[in-house]
Amino acid sequence: MQVHRARHLLAASAIVSLLLPLGTLAAPPSAEKRADREALRAALLAVLQRPSLKVSRVGVHMQSLDDGSVVFTHNADELLNPASNVKLVTSAAALAVLGSEFRYETEFLVDGMSAEGKVKTLYVRGKGDPSVTTERLWSVASELWHTGVREVGEIVVDDSWFDMERTPPGYDQEDSDRAYMAPTGALSLNWNAVAIYVRPGSGPGAKGIVEMEPPSDYFIVENQLSTGARRARRVSVTSDPAGAQQKIVVRGQVPAERGGATSQWKKIDNPPMYFGQTLKQILSTRGMKVRGKVRQGLTSSSARMVYVAQSDTFDVLLKRLNKLSSNFVAEQLLKTMGAEGRGAPGSFGKGVEVVEQFLEREVGIARGTYVMKNGSGLNDANRFSAAQLNKLLRYMYGRFPLAPEYLSSVPIAGKDGTLKYRFEGSDAVGRLRAKTGTLEGVSALSGYVTSAGGEHFSFSMMVNDFAGRAGPIVAGLDALGAAVAATGSSLGPSSAVAALAEGGRSSGAIDDVAARIKTYLELGRQRDSRNLGFLRTAWRSERDPAVRAVLAESLYQSNPHDYLGARTLLDSYSAGNDVYGRLREVARVLSVEVPGVTSMVELAAAGNTEALARVLELAGATGTDAQAQAELSVALGEVARTAPEALVVALRSALPADRDAATTLLARSLVEAGQGDHPFWKSLRRMLGAADPQVAAFAKGLDSTLSQKVAEAKAPRPSEGGGAVQVVAPAGGTPPPPPPPRPTGSAPEARTETRPGG
Predict the structure, then answer these.
(1) What superfamily does domain 105-166+274-315 belong to in CATH?
(2) For residue 412, which of 113, 269, 596, 742 sits 20 to 30 Å off, Cα-Cα?
(3) Rounded CA gap, 337 and 320, in Å?
(4) What global pTM score does this model have?
(5) What is the rounded CA–CA span in Å between residue 615 and residue 713?
(6) Which residues form the signal peptide (predicted)?
(7) Tens digit of pLDDT for each residue in 68-78?
């Protein structure tokens, strides 16, 4: 009888333990665990005293998933911009509301199909699938062929499942054609972005080759690309709406000796027409005649369904959302939740309502205690606290059966996604799973980690309003995460923090460093992706910041298509003496151009915001070095030719000293170019009439400043005797007012994502 009663008590105890929150029944921490916690706390406090973090707004909240105790907290209730950490909220709500087995459906219907396979109208009705690609459209074309379709009159694309508001709140703060700014659409293709491939022509002086992927009549391509004799690649691509089409303009030059194609991804602006025109092209290639046009419209009620294309299950889509930080997938999900939960058409507002209901009813985060305006984290639109994000993470950790899908969707430290190159050499590799977040002045990291001692933690860390490069901030966040992962190890959290110290130290004589750098430069020049494994390993283990920067450049050169390679270069390269200063010494020893500058200028010439800022910092760091000034003068001239408006925006954001140095070098380059139709002057004239009065005022000030510097640059030096260099007149000649200060948070460039997601 007593044994029987004991069994009942044990069973009841097990049921209660499942119903109570995580950690409720756990025993008090042991003396050993208390010591580990104190060591962890001391290590975390030491990291927060780093100069880069000390002057920033930082929110941190860490909690044990085993006993529920708060391990560390710092400003955890302050509302901060979480950047792409908002995707943790969006994906959690979508997983809970839609379910892990949810599939998107895209419907193909016909009206009036004859026995010979002639179709009067082919209707395509979208339901928001974010995963349709060109490859999947080829499969659809085959399925339509096998249903008997041989000829199509017109194609009608039905986009009515979503409303017509393409871009969510927050996107309007940035005027950009970058792929991460892609609009939403119930009918979407290739994440509503297009790849533009460029390669050299037959030889120096020949026209460069531009190819679209996918090709279709949707695109109007203006090719201003030339083939150059120099090794440098300077290419910019712009994408702008042109009614029912998209205009793609390619400028610059590609070197003849680098025969391989490179690509850039740009957003498109009319998703249903992009989808329809690409489908028309594929149907024709498959052998079906398309006699009519593509147009937008509603599906006829009399149309007959012939095929339904289904997406992968939702858990697969989640991995693209979080591991790659896809803004497009996040916003598609938000509208999908709106349509499924509140009725079509799906909208951003309806989607946010569904998310707010999930947070309040299931997670316990009250409405009005946070700000959520979009699902992706762009730009200065959302506010959450570290404690709130941590509460969500704890909820999803205990929400079986959704927890495995949720946890597997976030990047793994040192292994994949946006954490592929982070935490190397620490206990966090393979143990930490977290979502990154990156905007200008914002860096965040939230997720889960299992310590070396076997304890499980959830954490959220956000940093706002930091000045300068993101590299030191990212290093600080990584040190915080690595410290938690090292808890319970023989070395402890403090050693983990020391191993991921903010930056490395220059080591060795310059000749020895130059010899090592020479090897890595040669590997980079090979542009062989087979070298990536070795270069990654070397970059992860290298502590000398100058050598590390060269390794980062070689990673980028070995695979310029990989966003993470460019990201690594931007994070590793700085204008300080430890990197740029030492690399100038190395360049003199090796009789080469300063390593890293060419690749940084290549990114800047393509309009990369961070690269532009770094080039201006390099201009300010040249000092009295005539060779370095000459190199940066040429670089700024090339950037001014291919990305003129982006350069003006970057100059407006630069520190005064860097701006002054850069405009001096730019004026010198413009004088040497001596072309009356230089793209920079044209762009500056356009910006004088900008709708934003502050942008127009800055353009006016820059115009007059450059006028003066150009006059100084073309004046004959005493040693030259006479004969001033001929140069085109600047855009105007107004007296030079000082450039207006950049208003905090009001300019479009104030919050700029550095990648398609972050």
Answers:
(1) D-Ala-D-Ala carboxypeptidase C, peptidase S13 (3.50.80.20)
(2) 596
(3) 18
(4) 0.85
(5) 21
(6) 1-26
(7) 999 999 999 99
